[in-house]
Amino acid sequence: MPNIKLSAISTRAPKSLNKEKIKAKTTNLLAELNELQNLLFAENKHSILIVVQGMDASGKDGVTRNVFGKLNPQGVRVESFKVPTALELSHDFLWRIHQHAPPKGMIQIFNRSHYEDILVTRVHKLIDDEIAVKRMSAINDFEELLTKHNNTHILKFYLHISPEEQQVRLKERINDPTKQWKYNENDFAEAKHWKDYMKVYEDCFKNCNIIPWTIVPADQNWFKEYIIADLLHKTLTSLKMQYPGLKKS
């Protein structure tokens, strides 16, 4: 994968796209994904790991709700990785991640992921570059283990929001009663580290790209949800899955 420069990538949908047509396509994709997920669960040969990364207010929760929330909850699991606990810090940084890797037949969503340990930690100088390089190597090995030894198909999404749109959404959390529960005054402090975050994200894309990243323009939710639903649909369709039929006694 060539080096990714986030500042050179638009955070919005191409102007040529029709919003209503794309939303209609997404609706159709979600209906088909519901059947494909059922097939994934029944066949029990593959698993899907969805990694969703992005700056605060980029819409990670919205993707989880509006795309994966349409699927059968028995076949989807969601895990969010926040600040490590004392127990988690006493182990290697992937210990808390590996136990949530998806079993066959399941779709697992990481709303923030193992990548937090080479992003936030670098921006706030909790680890140095030498440790970051070692962790990125470990992440590559971990993802290779899942894909080659457990038939796990990994889709990695970076929700690419503009700093202007981020500020709009953060302020909505103050003024909108339905969003005030999300408000965290620290989000505005984190936003001041924007350039640092872009730098470490770009380094992450460069060094952890054995499983390619999809950069998702995230200023418009309708386009973001379409991109993710479409790639998941293509991935599941490519598996050529079949229902197993009657079980032998």
What does this structure look like?
The protein is α/β, with parallel strands linked by helices and 249 residues long. The protein has one domain: P-loop containing nucleotide triphosphate hydrolases (Rossmann fold). It has ten helices and five strands; from the N terminus they run αβαβααβααβαααβα. A five-stranded parallel sheet has the order 2-3-1-4-5, with helices on both faces. The chain is globular.
- The total strand number stands at 5
Number of helices: 10
Do you know the CATH architecture?
A: 3-Layer(aba) Sandwich
* Unreliable spans: none
Bulk shape: globular
Q: Ends: how far apart? A: 49 Å
Overall mean pLDDT: 95
> In percent terms, what proportion of residues is strand?
5-15%
CATH structural class: Alpha Beta
Helix content range: 40-55%
Assembly annotation = single chain
**CATH-defined topology:** Rossmann fold
| Tally of domains | 1
Structural category: alpha/beta
Strands of the biggest beta sheet: in what spatial order? Answer: 2-3-1-4-5
> What Rg do the Cα atoms give?
19 Å
Layout: helices, strands, pairs:
Layout: H1 19-43, E1 47-54, H2 60-66, E2 76-80, H3 86-89, H4 95-98, E3 107-111, H5 120-123, H6 129-150, E4 152-160, H7 163-175, H8 186-191, H9 194-207, E5 213-217, H10 221-238
Parallel strand pairs: 1-3, 1-4, 2-3, 4-5
Task: Write a concise keyword list for the protein shown above.
globular, 47% helix, 249 residues, Rossmann fold
